[in-house]
Design a protein that fits this description.
Helices cover 33% and strands 20% of the residues. A hairpin with a 5-residue loop joins strand 2 and strand 3. The protein has two domains: 76 residues, no CATH class; 133 residues, no CATH class. The chain is built from seven helices and eight strands.
């Protein structure tokens, strides 16, 4: 989204009396006496903020087990199969990469097998599918003039519980060597883009890099 659009939305909210609290964690969600309605939140300082509506964008399992009172439903959620996780690379480039548009999807040739790796082996597929976004295509503030900003999102297996006592968990823990997975993923993504789009010297154009992994986001 263009930053000017975001600023416009913020300004409208402020004119209507909205109080924005950025980077403010909460310790719990306040419930009505019957436990059926969210009435606000409690901050780590002990301060309570009442609200008519509470929107929770946190992971469902985390929210039920950490922000709401303990319940049998929360325990049930812990036993549900987890969805996939992801690796995200954020690259600042020293030039525009014209071969890329704002939205780019690279699908594995053996699509089904790649998802079997994610959901059964809980690791990175041998041939991954991934999405590449170039925000600088539609937002001039995303990168300096004549340069690009690139975001890569690559689905991989979810974190395996180290406290699990099943043989499958023990096997998958050995598979989840995150340093190795991240290094391999970066290499595969760059090679795939270079090969499919005919981009030459892509890696050398990366001047700054950051990333999010299942470990850094847990």
């Amino acid at each position: 989204m263009d930053l000017q659009v975001i600023e416009g939305i913020v300004n409208v909210g402020q004119r209507l009396g909205v109080d924005y609290r950025l980077s403010t964690p909460i310790s719990s969600i306040l419930l009505s006496p019957d436990g059926k309605t969210a009435k606000g939140v409690t901050l780590p300082s002990g301060e309570t903020v009442e609200a008519d509506i509470v929107l929770v964008n946190a992971d469902l399992v985390y929210a039920y087990n950490n922000l709401l009172p303990k319940s049998s439903y929360a325990k049930t959620l812990n036993k549900k199969p987890a969805s996939c996780s992801s690796l995200s690379f954020y690259w600042a480039m020293d030039r525009v990469i014209p071969e890329l548009s704002a939205h780019n999807i690279f699908l594995a040739e053996h699509y089904q097998e790649s998802f079997d790796d994610i959901f059964e082996k809980h690791t990175m597929p041998a041939e991954p599918s991934f999405y590449v976004n170039v925000p600088s295509r539609i937002d001039r503030t995303a990168a300096p003039e004549g340069k690009d900003a690139i975001v890569v999102l690559l689905p991989i297996g979810h974190l395996v519980d180290k406290d699990g006592d099943g043989k499958e968990d023990e096997l998958n823990q050995k598979e989840q060597d995150w340093e190795k997975i991240i290094s391999k993923a970066r290499k595969v993504v760059i090679q795939t883009m270079e090969k499919r789009l005919g981009i030459k010297g892509f890696e050398a154009c990366i001047v700054s890099e950051s990333m999010h992994t299942p470990m850094s986001c847990k």
